Each structure stands twice: as structure tokens, then as C-alpha cells.
Amino acid sequence: MLEIDLDQADPEFRKALMREPGSEKIAACFACRTCQASCPVAVVDERFNPLKVIRMALYGLKKQVLESDFIWFCSSCYACQERCPQGVRITDIMTILKNMALRAGHAPTGVKTQFEIITKQGRIYPIDDFDNKKREKINLPALPTACDKIKELFS
Description:
This protein is an all-alpha fold. The chain has two domains: 98 residues, Alpha-helical ferredoxin (Fumarate Reductase Iron-sulfur Protein, Chain B, domain 2), CATH 1.10.1060; 46 residues, no CATH class. Helix content is 52%, strand content 0%. It has ten helices and no strands. The termini are far apart.
């Protein structure tokens, strides 16, 4: 069982999370464990438990949530969210937490690398002549090899 030290709680973290679109109903969670029972990841890795993440977020345990590996285990299958009797948007909350963690510099190396590539190139892998020749064969227009608009979005 997880021991919680409320001296580490950050009430502003809870408030910030609850202001994010999609997390408005997080406080409606009454720990019925439907999310945990629905989660395919929890079946194969006991470290991940959607209920545990939600409860930790509600307690304001910012450091423990954002610096943990387990928020990245969510497969975004929406099983928990579809079955939640309170309508808590659990998968959306996991995405919000991942975004908060990334902004705070806490993310797996692969996620950080993908983020850097997307912000620089506008896509996860570059488009080259080979790709455009394949597109031409099936009557699709060529894509630009550079995606300069992305620089405007992230500047």
C-alpha cells in the first residue's frame, strides 16, 4: 500500500489540474475501482493503477505524480473513462498529467525526443522524395518536405 505524506501535498497542483478542460469532474471520483478493473495495463503491470493516479492528483501529490513513470503507462484505450459511473474523464486526465509532466521536464527520453522532432520538423519523420513518389502513384498531391508553419506555432 502507498503511504501518503500530506506534508508533500501541493493544493495548487490540484487546483491547476481541475482548471484544465476535461478534468472538471475529477473530484467526483469515489474510488469505486471500476477504472482499475477496466484497465488492460493494470492487468499486466501492477505499478499502473488509474485510481491511484487520480487519488494522488486529488491529494495534490504533484512531485509523485509528475515525476512518476506510471502516468506514461496509460495506453489511452478509454476503457476506464467509458465505464466510470461518475463520468470522470480519466484518460483525458492522464493526457493532461502527461502534458504537465512534459512541460515540467519529466518525461521518458523517447517522448522528449518525439516532442523535439515534432516542434522542429512539424512531423515525427521527414517527408522525402520517396514518400512523394508513393503519393503520386496513388494520385495524392505531394507534401512539402519542410513544415515551416510549426515554427510559428511553437515560437
